[in-house]
Amino acid sequence: MKWTSDQLKAIENRETNMLVSAAAGSGKTALLIQRIIRIVLEEKVGVDELLILTFTRGAAGEMKNRLSQALARELENPENDRSFLMKQMNILGGASISTLHSFCLSVLRQYFHKGDIDPGFAIGNDTEIALMLKETLEEVFEDEYQQAITMKNMAQENNAQNTPEQPDQNLEKNQENNEPAIDFLDLIEKYSGNKNDQALKDTVETLYRFLATQPNPESWSHQALALFDCDQKSLEASVWGSSLKKIINTELQGAMDSALKAREISATAGFEKTHEQMKSEVMMLEALEKTIRADLVAGLETLKNLGYERFRGSAKADKELNEQIKKYRDEAKTSITKLQKRFAINMDEMVQELNDLKKPMADLVALTQKFWTAFQAKKAQKNLVDYNDLEQLTLKILMDPEVADEVRTRYRYIFLDEYQDTNEMQETILQRIVRDNNYFMVGDVKQSIYRFRLADPTIFISKYESFGRDGNPNNSLVTLNQNFRSAQGVINSVNAIFEQVMSAGLGEINYDEQARLNKGLPHEGPYQKTEIHIIEEQKKETEAGDVGAFDEDDREDLTAVEVEARFVANQIQSLVGTTFFDTRHNQERAINYGDFGILMRSVAGRGDVYLRIFSEMGIPTYFDGGTNYYESLEITMILNLLNLMDNQHQDLPLLSIMTSPIGNFTTTECTRLRIAHPQGFFYQAVEAYAQEECDELSQKLGAFYQKLTDWRYQSKLMAVEDFLWKIYLESGYYAFVGALPGGEQRQCNLRILLKRAGDYKKSTLKGLYQFIRFVENMKKHKQDISPPAMVSNHEAVVRLMTIHKSKGLEFPIVILAGAGKGFNKRSNYSQVLFHKDLGICPDYVNLEKRYKHNSLAKEVCKA
Asked: What residues bind ATP, as annotated (predicted)?
């Protein structure tokens, strides 16, 4: 393989720590394998002296597989040391090529005595840990409610026994001897929903997960709370003040751009008065910008009092130019009006609000710490750790200089793939064991998609901006922006879009010459067209025969998703049968349905619509994320049966099972039961009929309840996995669903539930009730909802999937659908946000005046 000069730098340079910014299709994995092989061959470094980390088990497994293949190829070269390479092949299976969490686990297993850890600990199942977390939150909140009630009762008793001149000395002593109590009810009133306390529970959980990614959560909490203890001067100098200046200046720059355009156009003859007004407004914005930079307090006051006069256009001059001037002038005015609404209060009020927020936020931190302590204790009771614990405990152990030095000495070179997805905790762990010149980081910040998992791409960006420019000879940067995967048309399209939308302000990195893609392929086939189709929301006339056209009558009752799905279907049908040049097989051939891949950011609410419309239009389609696994007929039925055995006094599960092949009751029979006993719950009507009547239906009910009773008894004696298989067979339900349309997939779904029962058996949870909760939690968090595909990769069907599931180079023709869907900003609507630099950023809630709004902290965090 012929390497580019930049790729060779990344492969050959071993004198420094190196950050490789590798764009999509730049040959990152091949480069990484080549660097490792060169190190092994040229320096005689054993694979057991390398630490190679990534973020998924699949990626780690593929890395190990590729390295094995590369070593095998080198074995065929007679010039290489065969015995040395054979040894590397033999020990490769035990080499440290793993996820970061697996590395942490190996450190804990070896140095458990340094961290006061029970060596018999186990990693908790995700669902088991989630259930424990939920239980702990419930217990902590219940305890806080009880304490709040006790304190309220004590206060009422003391008020009755003491006059205002004689306060209760015992209460004062309690407050002196203990830390300030959490004002739990105040938190509930301010930061919970109207119906329940779930919103506050969610906030506590979010803060806990955030703190778990901080190397020093106590220090972060202390610094975050200290920000609320401010005055005007310290606020302006704080991270909130500097961020506020940036927000205002960014908005002002947009307003200024529009005002300058208005001034430029108004310089045309006939607009003399308008031009004077536009000049005056530009000067007004320039003065505001200057004031903001010099003095934030004065700047906010100036912004608050800023006003626009009525637009002085020219009725006699060019009408079109007059409209253009007004348009740009209105844009500037709108930007200023928005700023005035966002920051309507003065600096004194801002400071007072932030001061008022210190106590509730300190209470929130204290409540979260109480939950954290209780959660750790609950896990310790079962000798379990979760992934957050792995990182926290590993860092604690590596803070021992002796341990850190021992681990550091063990590895000659350290590699970290997908570096853009690290967080502060993970980076701190690795900094404890790297040397000055053995750390190789590779990734692409433009592909960072795990911020919802608390990945922090700013770590990558910080090194990208400093490596090679900070004068440190131990650090170097290599940028790989040649794409060897895509044709020029695709590359041009990607660049054209991202040059417009990606900037440091919006995406934390500028899409400049270093970031844009460049063609790396030496040749390309003739088929490289990229098309962008925009579907107008309003109705518009279309010419019959146009690709993607459809009658107005067809469109009236269609949702936006249906309109898009029908358009895509028409596009596919128009292309099937036409010819294109297949670069993979180097020949021209006809397009078939199997050549199409439809990618979406999210298939939720869209995939099923596409599937239905494609089916109506005769397009064979495969979609493995359709109807929710847990909502499928067969899984719903079995879960209803389990719920019924756990508690037979449930109407919906009872009616569901009775009318299924398991119960085999007809709707007529169920109606007879209700007519005979119209009052009360349905299960009461069923039980009453079975006890009071002596007909064929009552006998059928008796047999049905006896079957449930037998199963309920057996469930207590058998492992859930074995019990499930027993009822599958005894009820005949497994055979029944196999005979339905899609029977093979339905039986596969039931076997997946068996596998979940097997996972449950490995946890510390026991019994049918806990298994039901185990599954309900997976259902709630949408875990394991994609059963294995029942379609061959070679079948001529259109495939519909998320971008995340696609591997690249799978389809000759790719359709990116749902691109008009807005971004998910749900997190911005949370009442409290958390940021590693900006700290705790809550809503300001005034209970007395019954209003709330974004605090300054939240405004700058959302920006």
From this structure: 22-29
